[in-house]
Amino acid sequence: MRRLLVDVLYHYRQQDKFLLHEFVIMTDHLHLLITPTVTLERAMQFIKGGFSYRAKKELGFVLEIWQPSFYDRRVRDVEEYFRFREYIRQNPMKKGMVRLAEEYEYGSAWPRYELDGIPETMRSVGISG
């Protein structure tokens, strides 16, 4: 299921529904750091709806997967961006799932994943990434 969710994230990223900066898929929740190119609500509909559809179709999953809403936080500045980034990357370590963030296959710290850089609005203040 986690591998399928990663596939869904990259599918909609490739369709330019959002920029994907960071993510981690835990056993019972998900953390994302994205820049939507559509409304945030629409981006989440793509992710949640796309995953639910594929989980039912490809894995035969019949139960409800998602809670009806989500919690969002606006990243206000570069420092906050990097705090969120570190929180997301460190989540599997804090839960004792891995020793190093880079070892967790379902998070953006894993070296295999291609991510979008820091949002353009934050680059204008002299930070690159």
Measured by DSSP, the beta-strand proportion falls in 5-15%
**Low confidence ranges:** none
**Number of DSSP helical runs:** 4
Largest sheet: 2 strands, antiparallel
**What is the ordering of alpha helices and beta strands?**
HEEHHH
Query: In whole angstroms, how far apart are the ends?
Result: 30 Å
Shape: globular
Structural class: alpha+beta
Number of structural domains:
1
In CATH terms, the superfamily is Transposase IS200-like
Please tally the β strands and state the result. 2
CATH architecture: 2-Layer Sandwich
Output the strand order for the largest sheet: 1-2
Task: Predict the CATH topology.
Answer: Alpha-Beta Plaits
Mean pLDDT: 92
The CATH class: Alpha Beta
**How helical, in percent, are the residues?**
40-55%
Radius of gyration: 15 Å
Give the topology.
Elements: H1 2-14, E1 18-25, E2 30-36, H2 40-59, H3 78-94, H4 120-123
Summarize the structure.
The chain has 129 residues and is α+β, with helices and mostly antiparallel strands. 42% of the residues lie in helices and 12% in strands.
Search tags:
129 residues, alpha+beta, Alpha-Beta Plaits, two-stranded antiparallel sheet, 4 helices, 12% strand
